[in-house]
Amino acid sequence: MLWSTCTRVLLQLRSDPRSIALILVVPAVLLALVYWLYQNETLAPGMPRTFDRVGLMMLGIFPFVVMFLLTSITMLRERTSGTLERLLSTPLHKADLLFGYALAFSIMAAAQALVATGTAYWVFGMAIAGNAGWVVLISVLTAVLGVALGLLCSAFAHTEFQAVQFMPVVVIPQILLCGLFVARDQMNSVLEVISNVLPLSYAVDGLQQVAQSSSPTSQLVWDLVVVAAFVLAGLLLASLTLRRRTA
């Protein structure tokens, strides 16, 4: 049942070119905008480019935002159209449904990560110490994190407009406190504590570990475990909050 749900979602995406473009093209285009923002910066000899630092973080942030938005709206559309209620009237378990969605979007997230990372490395010449494979893995994990949180938040929305309203509540605080603008250890104590319980902070920290070290560190492994735990917790909570009947 999980695989059939995954196949159904992938077939739906295949018939929706705009969603495919949103997943595969938009993160790469946004990454290009970041590159052009810093294209004319003047660097001292031996200094790394700002794009190599900021662009690397964006490889985790952009997939997270895109997949959160796409998943929450898609699941809400399933509910309002009555498709979700019909599916849950069958022997299909709620966990099969949600994990099937997560698997389908994870496959798309992997393709998204490959496109965005390939653009960063081969088109814009991103230079970091670590292996690109770790960047792809973290990018996929953050995208799946966006899927899990999108599925969870969709249970509390009744319209697509309400689903979008979760962006400033769930997504934007994580972007502000993940270490992109100010290093987490330089924040005041309250914001640092909040940052330490937000999953995107660990994804960004993992990307920073990849940028600084040519081999995987224990901190990188810990960051990956924490993000994966948040993904699993988000999916489990979403299965508990998923209603069998449309209100």
UniProtKB/TrEMBL annotation:
Residues annotated as transmembrane: 20-38, 58-76, 97-122, 134-157, 164-183, 220-242
GO terms under biological process: response to antibiotic
GO cellular component, one term: ATP-binding cassette (ABC) transporter complex
Region forming the signal peptide: none
Keyword field: Antibiotic resistance, Cell membrane, Membrane, Transmembrane, Transmembrane helix, Transport
Membrane topology, record value: Multi-pass membrane protein
Source domain of life: Bacteria
A GO molecular-function annotation: ABC-type transporter activity
Span of domain ABC transmembrane type-2: 18-245
Coiled coil regions, renumbered to chain: none
Subcellular location, record wording: Cell membrane
Family: Belongs to the ABC-2 integral membrane protein family.
Protein name: Transport permease protein
Source organism per UniProt: Arthrobacter psychrochitiniphilus
